[in-house]
Amino acid sequence: MFEINLLTLNVHKGFSASGRRFVLPGLREAVRRVGADLVFLQEVLGVHQRHARRADWPAVPQYEYLADTLWTQYAYGRNAAYPDGHHGNALLSRYPILRQENRDATVGASEKRGLLHCVLEVPGRGPEVHAICVHLGLREAHRRRQVELLCGMVEREIPASAPLVVAGDFNDWRGAAHRLLHRCGLREAFAEASGRLARTFPARWPLLPLDRIYVRGARIGRAQVLARPPWSRLSDHAALAATIAVAGGAP
Asked: What angle do helix axes 176-183 and 140-157 make, rounded to 10 degrees?
């Protein structure tokens, strides 16, 4: 068995909860200090022409800027496009990304959503690890259909023997999506470790359990909500960190 450290965060396009302060440099430092092997990001900007006029705006896409030199592998799935640019989900990985696909999970016309699926080569001779970065819709009916799509992907496309991590912003404050995901074989890290889902929104006074880390084919270890400063000043969501153990060679 070997451990994989996970982190998930809705980065709010690199701005504070109020949207007034550009906080991406501080966010990069906070993410680096966690030392996660896999980082699941939502609402990350690929391009934004108006913001790019700022003197402190990075010259590369936000996910590449956050990856820096620690995560040499990264994948981006564009979900929403508009005149100034686009944003979506991203995965930063210390492990080689063998394959990636961004599955359109949009329901209706108002909210563009996607499921970013990556297949990773892990240390040693263990099985490939599958990682899906998720950002579900605001409407419960939309989330139900998106979870059905996700469960169908898991059932048809991911071998039952392969370790799987599904993490991100589920917008599921009532828990309906959680119950559906549990029935399709996924276990949530915080629900298993502490008996309840982690509260992550709003970041300064977390009340709603919007963000999750689900696994299959892995043992859940540490699970932690990152809601204190500096995290509470870096997004409208708190970050989640967890450690899982999967079968395979030594790292």
From this structure: 20
List domains and CATH numbers for the chain. Answer: 2-246 (3.60.10.10)
Report d(CA 64, CA 66) in Å as an integer.
Answer: 5
The residue-averaged pLDDT of 9-27 equals 94
- Let me know: does 68 contact 95? Beta carbons within 8 Å: no
Q: Is 249 a residue whose pLDDT tops 70?
A: no
What is the model's pTM? 0.96
Q: Using alpha carbons only, give the angle 14, 212, 197 rounded to the nearest 5 degrees.
A: 125
Compute the distance between CA of residue 186 and CA of residue 214 in angstroms, rounded to an integer: 6
Q: What's the confidence (pLDDT) of residue 92? A: 98
At residue 1 the predicted structure's pLDDT band, cuts being 50, 70 and 90, is confident
Structure-token pair, residue 102: 């961004």
Please return the burial class of 198, using the count of CB atoms within 10 Å of its CB with bins 0-12, 13-18 and 19+. buried
Tokens at 190, concatenated: 């915080």
Give every strand in the sheet of 38-48, ordered side by side. Answer: 73-82, 85-93, 38-48, 2-10, 239-246, 219-226
